[in-house]
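Narrative summary of target 7.
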Amino acid sequence: ADASLHRTEEREGRTAMTPVEGIPLAPGAELRLRPGGYHGMIRWSGPGPAPGDTLAVTLRFDEGPGLTVPASVVGHGEALTRHPPEEP
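Modeled conformation, tokenized:
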């Protein structure tokens, strides 16, 4: 599998996903990864999980230990219809 981070943005009245290398986050701050804002995308080389499944995803930080969190699988194309864009 190949994982990447993206941010959904409005550009000239259209919604676009922009790849990001990382997300600035102050120590102790919270950030929700979700469709319509910052989100992760995973591409599978073969059969992958189905929409509605939950995966254990480990987030890595520049400093400190990683953090394993549950992540809900959302089908391609359904993400923006389920959640409006939000501020980071």
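The chain is about 5% helix and 40% strand.
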